[in-house]
Amino acid sequence: MGVDEQTGALIAPLQQLMDWARGHSMWPMTFGTACCAIEMMSVGSPRYDTDRFGIFFRNSPRQADCMIVAGTVNLKMAPRMKLLYEQMAAPKYVIAMGACAIGGGPFSEGYNVVNGADLVLPVDIYLPGCPPRPEALIDALLMLMERIAAGEPSAATRAAMSARA
Amino acid sequence: MMVAPATIVPIAASLASLAGVIDVRPLGAGGIPRVSTSAAGVVEMLRTLRNDHGFADLTLLTAEETDSSDGVTLVYELLRRADHSRVVIGVDLLDSELSAPSVSGIWAGAAPLEREVYDLFGVDFTDHPGLSRIVLRDDFVGHPLRKSFVAGETGVSAEQVAKALESHGDRLPGGEVPRATASLFAAARKPGDPQLRSERLILNMGPQHPSMHGVLHLWLALDGEQVVAAQPTHGYLHRCIEKLCESRDHRACTALLDRCDYVSGFHTELAHVLAIEELAGIESTPKADHLRTAMSELVRITSHHTWYAACGLDTGALTPFLYAFIDRELILDFFEEVTGARMMFNYFRPGGVKDDLPPGSAERIIAYLKGFTRAVDEYEALLTDNEIFRARTRGVGILSRQQITDFGVTGPMARASGVDIDLRRDEPYAAYDRIPTRVALAEVGDSFDRYVVRIAEMRESARIALAALEGLPEGPHLNPDVPRVIKPPRGTAFRWVESPRGELGVYVVSDGSSRPWRLKVRSPAFSNLHVCGQLLQGLRIGDVVAVLGSVDVVMGEIDR
User: Rounded distance, CA B235 to CA A33, Å?
Assistant: First the structure.
């Protein structure tokens, strides 16, 4: 990005401007499946107040850029989760929040538990904890926003690129 | 049906004379009589106990595998509220004939419980209104709580996941609609209101919906704005907790049970710990009793905070969420100080609690609780006299006493309809016998009354927690005589606590080893949710969320 000396206007390639804008207004979807969802609610509460980072939770997948998989995914939930992900507009990002979404967590030996959201969706950020503290979720969101602002492709884009190559 | 106290006869004596009794013996050390009967005689026996002996409440319907793994034992528990006596009925079924008559003709709420037993154990219930799977996918193969069911060392394989993604799994393997949803589909196919010339349709609410409180899924058959049939569907959070407990040490189960009802972990922990103490003959210490009581009440407050936030959001108010979560965080700080965790405490142990309070902690909690009434006043200022909130909730979703007994509804939902039940007062555990509970009641039983009762409970919980901490006895926080490995003798224990959602029970069968043979969590929210199938009928679509917001469901506990 640069500044035009005569007019003082900000000059940047359009893509870079878009990334900058996206990286400062992350709209995750309210998609809580289990215990982690309660900590996800806390993140929106006055003490942690994610609004100050430009993070607003949206109820509709059509309006969201980021899906926080907050909790255990089981065989019944998995197809619904995939459908919700497909309803989101690209570019879209996924945070696997908590041990269950990373690899099944304490329920990984269960007969009905999908051992990790990445078996279903391309995951951008893995956030450990059972459940992770709200501060950790804020850290994960900020990390994702930094990556977006720096123009890094999402996990979905990377997967598509490597499939094409 | 209540029995007048004068006519109550001790049940143990009259049980042997009932028709169809095979034998009567005490169930474990708890002194509850257990009656064996045959599948053919069970309906008659339950009806006699209900109509002639005053056992009006079916509090548990589950199953366990027989000792020799050659069949399944069905377990029913009935409760007589007049003197709080309980009786357990066991029905042995052999694998060659895994079938029993349904008792849903006596208690409508038995139908979903029987579906759960069918789902997890494969028992076929004859005359059932819609027997099909309830927590697992309809195309799931096998019945996982049987010991012969092996999931594989690493659980679900990648191939199984890939196959699951191909369909939603709400059809039977042959492509048919499962029986449970068939009646809803039939209702939706009927013609709409001829005057309005409306058409009927099916609306799916959830599992991802801002007011579905987690991953609840409602099928609604609509005629215009009106709900003509409703069916709650769940299982999106079934994470095999009961099966996983069977391969864990008794104490290691606590970690999983915390995640069962994740907004009030202490209550599931407590019911489990009480059951293990009863099985193994371990005594808790007076100090631990007080700490257990104080922590249970504090977590009830935070649970009601979560409900209050969601209830506000459902009726279109955002501010209650902001207010409730300020105070919730302050209490979670205390939990963190005492147990080391904000939500997954793992704090109660057989024989006491894990750690004593850190220095100064009791004083800090007491100081906070003394000012807590002011916080509740603030919550009330936001909603109680709020015109919109009153208009949305008053007279909406009135729960009748009949529905409460039919479905086994407990907790604030029952108390809002004037049913005076509370286990903290009626069957005191921990330190509740020393700290009397004042039970909050309302009369009408609509969504607004459920709100009023929970608000009153927050004040009461603060008072009990305060009393428990102010009267904290000296002494050890953990019984020093507890063995390193707990191997309770063979037997069964069943203990109850009053959770924020109602009567939560943990049923443990020990085979003498260090692991439970069967562990069942009786979920109050399960029954409270299934009554909604009736409660929502006839309401407008906008009222559905106002009712669900007042039910306070936690899917982790319903699905387990």
Answer: 11
- Give SS3 for B342: coil
Whether B326 and A46 lie within 8 Å, measured CB to CB? yes
A42: which 2 tokens? 């806390």
Q: Which of residues 251-310 of B touch A (CB under 8 A)?
A: 255-256, 259, 262-263, 306, 309
Per the DSSP assignment, residues forming a β-bridge with B92 are B73
How far is residue A127's CA from residue B89's CA, in Å, rounded to a whole number? 47
pTM: 0.90
Question: What is the mean pLDDT for each group of 10 consecutive residues in chain A (165 residues)?
Answer: 80 84 87 87 90 88 90 90 90 92 89 90 92 93 91 85 83
Q: How far apart are CA B40 and CA A61, in angstroms?
A: 52
- CA distance to B66, B207, B416, B551, per residue, from B384 (Å): 52, 30, 15, 17
Each residue of A12-26: pLDDT tens digit?
888 888 888 888 888
pLDDT the model gives residue B2: 44
For residue B393, the SS3 value is: helix
Q: What are phi and psi of B503, to 5 degrees?
A: -85, 110
**Chain A contacts of B552, Cβ < 8 Å?**
none
pLDDT for B449 equals 92
Judge residue A20's burial from the number of C-beta atoms within 10 Å of its C-beta, 0-12 exposed, 13-18 middle, 19 or more buried: middle
**Rounded Cα distance, A126 and B506, in Å:** 34
Q: Which ipTM value was assigned to this complex?
A: 0.86
The DSSP line for A63-99 is: G-SEEEEES--BTTTHHHHHHHHHHSPSS-EEEEEHH
Is the pLDDT score of B1 beyond 50? no
pLDDT digits (tens, 9 = 90+) for B458-478: 999 999 999 999 999 988 989
Distance (Å, rounded) from C-alpha B216 to C-alpha B232? 7
Residue of B177, B174, B190 whose CA lies nearest to B233: B177
Greatest extent of chain B over all pairs of C-alpha atoms, in Å = 75
Cβ-based neighbours of B257, under 8 Å, separated by 6 or more: B241, B245, B265, B268, B269, B272, B506, B521
Tell me if chain B has a CB within 8 Å of the CB of A113: yes
> Tokens standing for A129?
């904890």
B244 touches chain A (CB under 8 A): yes
Whether B430 contacts B277, CB under 8 Å: no
Nearest CA in chain A to B158: A119
Distance (Å, whole) CA B523 – CA B410: 10
Is A37 within 8 Å of B343 when comparing Cβ atoms?
no
Contact A47 B235 (CB under 8 A): no
* CA B456 to chain CA centroid, nearest Å: 21
pLDDT digits (tens, 9 = 90+) for B256-287: 999 988 999 899 999 999 999 998 889 899 99
* The predicted structure's pLDDT at residue B17: 72
Residues pairing with B478 in the sheet: B352
Q: What is the pLDDT of residue B182?
A: 79
pLDDT tens for each residue of B527-547: 999 998 889 988 888 889 889
Mean pLDDT of B372-384: 91
Task: Assign 3-class secondary structure to B102-164.
Answer: CCCCCCCCHHHHHHHHHHHHCCEEECCCCCCCCCCCCCCCCCCCCCCCCCCCCCCCHHHHHHH
Answer positive or negative: Cα dihedral of B318, B320, B323, B325: negative
CA distances from A139 to A25, A29, A48, A65, B33 (A): 15, 17, 11, 17, 55
